[in-house]
Structure formats: structure tokens, C-alpha cells
Amino acid sequence: MKSNVIEVQEALKGIDYPKAKKEVIKYAKDNKASKDVMADLKKISDRKYETAAELSKEFSGK
């Protein structure tokens, strides 16, 4: 991943969960996320994320 968890959290600040992958990507885009964050979000698993912690796990590899 090119970005880190903190950059992703900043791009998704204020998002309400649960959200599907496509909703997370749209929110980040609308929030003017960096190219690196957008590229990394496109690589996450295609599923619904119930919490920010679930999404963060995608970036920590756990």
C-alpha cells in the first residue's frame, strides 16, 4: 500500500458505517483524498465494512 492508515482515516473523516467498498471509495473521492489513498482503497476487499476498525485492518494486514 502506498498510503498509511492515518491518511486513509483523514480521507474518510466523518463517514458513517456500515459502507460497501464502492461507497467508501466515493466518500473518499468526494473528500478529495490523495491519489495514493484512492489507489489503495480500490485494492481493498469488495465487501461491506461495519466499522472503521474493519477497514483499518485492510491496511495493517491483520
Global mean pLDDT: 91
Strand order of the largest sheet: 1-2
Number of helices in the DSSP assignment:
4
Q: Report how far apart the termini are.
A: 14 Å
Name the helix and strand elements from N-terminus to C-terminus, one letter apiece: HEHHEH
Number of domains: 1
Low-confidence stretches: none
Number of DSSP-assigned strands:
2
Oligomer: single chain
Structural class based on helices, strands and sheet pairing: mainly alpha
Describe this structure in words.
With 62 residues, the protein is mainly alpha-helical. It has helices spanning 5-11, 21-30, 35-41, 52-60, and strands spanning 19-20, 48-49. The two termini are 14 Å apart.
Key structural traits:
62 residues; mainly alpha; two-stranded antiparallel ribbon; 4 helices; 2 strands; 53% helix
Short characterization:
Strands 1-2 form a two-stranded antiparallel sheet. Helices cover about 55% and strands about 5% of the residues. It has 4 helices and 2 strands.
Give the topology.
Blueprint: H1 5-11, E1 19-20, H2 21-30, H3 35-41, E2 48-49, H4 52-60
Antiparallel strand pairs: 1-2
